[in-house]
Amino acid sequence: KDKNTLIRFICPSCFEVTLEEGILLKIIIEFELYVLSFDLDDTRFVIPSGTKKKPFMTTELRHYKALTKSLQRATYMKVDGLRQAMMQRRTQFLSKLSSKVLLCKDVIKATMDKEERTLLFFGSIEQSVEICGENVYNSTTTDEKLTAFCNEEINFLGCCQALNEGKNIPNVDQSIIVGETTTVYEELE
User: Fold this and answer.
1) Which of 69, 74, 107, 186 satisfies CB 3.0 to 4.6 Å to 83 for a cystine?
2) In contact, 108 and 165? CB cutoff 8 Å
3) CA–CA distance from 108 to each of 40, 94, 111, 132 (Å)?
4) From CA 159, how far away is CA 138, in angstroms rounded?
């Protein structure tokens, strides 16, 4: 919020264009957006949970429900910052789900034969390496793979919090956003 206010104060926008105007001006290419929804896994016990004294493994769905209950308690307690901290904890959990990685692998398999240039955005460096191997660009790498992708030497590039505004990535056929999550889930009673 403060960053946006500061940016508007220091360098206000000279003009704004709608998406349609941007397409007509060839600033933006036409695109289609698909949202792939999936259920949280409730069969594999792969999520560490519990306390240090009593740790146990649980499923994605059960852990999500526990985080939601904690968020609800934090909301009722009205302790400064606790609700925000619990919300952030749940969001971080959702951005790094292993089931999202499996879904991403399925999407990549379905498009591999088309040799489409694919830019992937992940919630963690580990996710990007698991999917893209060495073809990653993040805070721990150099610009070598980004340059190779821009020069069309490689067709896949996985990113994790590294491509900021102002980077021009030419000739991308598709982008897959694995890191962000919007939840549509019936809140617990």
Assistant:
1) 74
2) no
3) 20, 21, 5, 10
4) 6
User: How far apart (Å, rounded) are the C-alpha atoms in residues 140 and 144?
Assistant: 12
DSSP type of residue 172: -
Distance of CA 73 to the CA centre of its chain: 27
Q: Cite the beta strand spans of 89-147 per DSSP E.
A: 118-121, 136-138
> SS3 for 85?
helix
- The pTM (predicted TM-score) of the whole model is 0.70
Q: Which is nearest to 178 in space by CA: 165, 163, 162, 159? A: 159
Note the pLDDT tens digit of each residue in 138-179: 888 888 999 999 999 998 899 987 776 667 788 888 888 887
Q: What are the angstrom distances between the C-alpha of 17 and each of 4, 20, 22, 24?
A: 18, 8, 6, 10
Q: Residue 159: what are its φ and ψ, rounded to 5°?
A: -125, 150
Angle between helices 60-77 and 82-95 (to 10 degrees): 160
Token code pair at residue 125: 């460096």
132 Cβ contact partners less than 8 Å away, ≥ 6 residues apart: 120, 156, 157, 158
